[in-house]
């Protein structure tokens, strides 16, 4: 049996030495050291040996197993190193080549417009306020001088959830909530951007869901000239220093007097074209002096305090500023449209 073991060792070491793949090494390991391997088969005959021969043969068998195992490990390490070197040689990277550009996203056009407007008004001392999109009838209408059954409510065809809850039709409720929070105790400036909802037929210029930014300034001795100066600064910032504005009389239940603001058409420089319908002017927002009743319901004494309010639609501003001809582009998620306004 001693001769068998020595011959087995020599045969195994020879096979290991001539093997060129790791898979073949695994096969050799199983063939010689596995449960049904050659070494195990030889050791099964130890039961026929005498007591004196068994320890001697057992020691030789352990030596053979150790020699084969060591040879397998050394050859495996050698083959693995050779494979790694070959892989590194075949997959060499030329670090001098220019990198491939990674496409990244960016703010939506409406988000950029809202942020630009926020930055402008924050720079003028305004704070940015938010409020719930599901609003009470009181804050959406009554606190803004629109009592129940008021005819002006028909202008804002609403999504009612219950008799007293609805999706807000404008962001003005945030103004009413802010006035009640301060309870007539201090002056303030604020803007409130957010989504609003009205039952409308979606087309190129209308949507059932859109964005509004409304502003409110309440203090002592606030005048219409303050409103005009603020809106003039806004128009020049958003559309260029050469833009002119004009205020036209209008009607809103929550302001008195009320105005619509137009900007001079940048396409024809006020001379008249198809964009401005030959008037030279384009309507952009509405505003006015806060109605005394609105101040009173907000906790402010209209004999002491006055204020102005304004409201604008970022979609309309974006359409005028960038020449977008359909409001639905803002919500269609068409990457061909969106990437035109991505600023890297």
UniProtKB/TrEMBL annotation:
Its EC number is 6.1.1.20. Its cofactor is Mg(2+). One of its GO terms (cellular component) is cytoplasm. Residues 65-92 form a coiled coil. It comes from the Bacteria. GO terms for molecular function: ATP binding; catalytic activity, acting on a protein; magnesium ion binding; phenylalanine-tRNA ligase activity; transferase activity; tRNA binding. It catalyses: tRNA(Phe) + L-phenylalanine + ATP = L-phenylalanyl-tRNA(Phe) + AMP + diphosphate + H(+). Its main location: cytoplasm. The keyword Hydrolase does not apply. Mg(2+) binds at residue 256. It is an enzyme of class 6 (ligase). SUPFAM superfamilies: Class II aaRS and biotin synthetases, tRNA-binding arm. Tetramer of two alpha and two beta subunits. HAMAP family: Phe_tRNA_synth_alpha1. Belongs to the class-II aminoacyl-tRNA synthetase family. Phe-tRNA synthetase alpha subunit type 1 subfamily. This is Phenylalanine--tRNA ligase alpha subunit. The lineage of its organism: Bacteria, Bacillati, Bacillota, Bacilli, Bacillales.
């Amino acid at each position: 049996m001693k001769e068998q073991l020595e011959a087995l060792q020599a045969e195994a070491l020879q096979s290991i030495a001539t093997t060129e793949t790791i898979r073949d090494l695994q096969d050799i390991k199983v063939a010689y050291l596995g449960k049904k391997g050659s070494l195990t088969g030889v050791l099964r005959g130890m039961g026929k040996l005498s007591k004196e021969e068994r320890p001697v043969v057992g020691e030789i068998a352990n030596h053979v197993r150790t020699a084969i195992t060591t040879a397998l490990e050394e050859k495996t390490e050698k083959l693995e190193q050779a494979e790694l070197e070959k892989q590194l040689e075949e997959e060499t990277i030329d670090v001098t080549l220019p990198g491939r550009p990674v496409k990244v996203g960016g703010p939506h056009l409406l988000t950029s417009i809202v942020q630009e407007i926020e930055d402008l008004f924050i720079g003028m001392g305004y704070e940015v306020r938010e409020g719930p999109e599901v609003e009470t009838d009181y804050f959406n209408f009554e606190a803004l001088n629109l009592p129940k059954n008021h005819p002006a409510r028909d202008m804002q065809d609403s999504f009612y959830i219950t008799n007293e809850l609805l999706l807000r039709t404008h962001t003005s409720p945030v103004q009413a909530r802010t006035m009640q929070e301060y309870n007539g105790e201090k002056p303030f400036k604020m803007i409130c951007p957010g989504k609003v909802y009205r039952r409308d037929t979606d087309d190129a210029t209308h949507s059932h869901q859109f964005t509004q930014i409304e502003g409110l300034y309440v203090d002592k001795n606030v005048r219409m000239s303050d409103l005009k100066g603020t809106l003039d600064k806004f128009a020049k910032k958003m559309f260029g220093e050469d833009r002119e504005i004009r205020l036209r009389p209008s009607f809103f239940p929550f302001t008195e007097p009320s105005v619509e603001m137009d900007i001079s058409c940048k396409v024809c420089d006020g001379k008249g074209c198809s964009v401005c319908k030959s008037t030279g002017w384009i309507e952009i927002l509405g505003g006015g002096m806060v109605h005394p009743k609105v101040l009173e319901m907000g906790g402010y004494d209209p004999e002491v305090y006055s204020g102005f309010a304004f409201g604008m639609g970022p979609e309309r501003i974006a359409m005028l500023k960038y020449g977008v001809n359909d409001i639905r582009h803002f919500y269609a998620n068409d990457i061909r449209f969106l990437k035109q306004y991505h600023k890297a």
